[in-house]
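Input.
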Amino acid sequence: MWQMNVFESQRDDSTQARINEPVITWNEAPKKASVMAQYGRRVTVTGTFQPSTTTLIGTSWPVRVVTGIKLTSGETMAVVRGKLSKGERVPAAPTGAITVTGVLAASEADDGRRNSQMPAAVLPSLRLEVLTQTWPQPLVPAT
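Output.
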């Protein structure tokens, strides 16, 4: 138990340290290996939201609202815009060029759990492998 507590404490410290590092500004998405090295860091990107990519993610309410933002360099990146409670309408994405800052995350694991009470259009997890089936390419390997 002690080892587990030490591990969790170190992980929490490491996560907080990465979030506290200076914000990275991407004018274009770097190569995949560079993106992976930045997970957990705050990143600023500029682009235009693509409303047709809006996707709901979750296994219970509230769910996350995810929309692709097309970067000025042409890549599309998944951005979690907020949460949506049952019965609410999805808010429209901002229009025009916009700059957003958020914590860079990897694709989520698929634990195979799906809540049968959720609408079929709501994905259980944010998996970039699934988004690549319908979203504009190239897709940044992070959210």
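Residues 17-105+113-131 form one domain.
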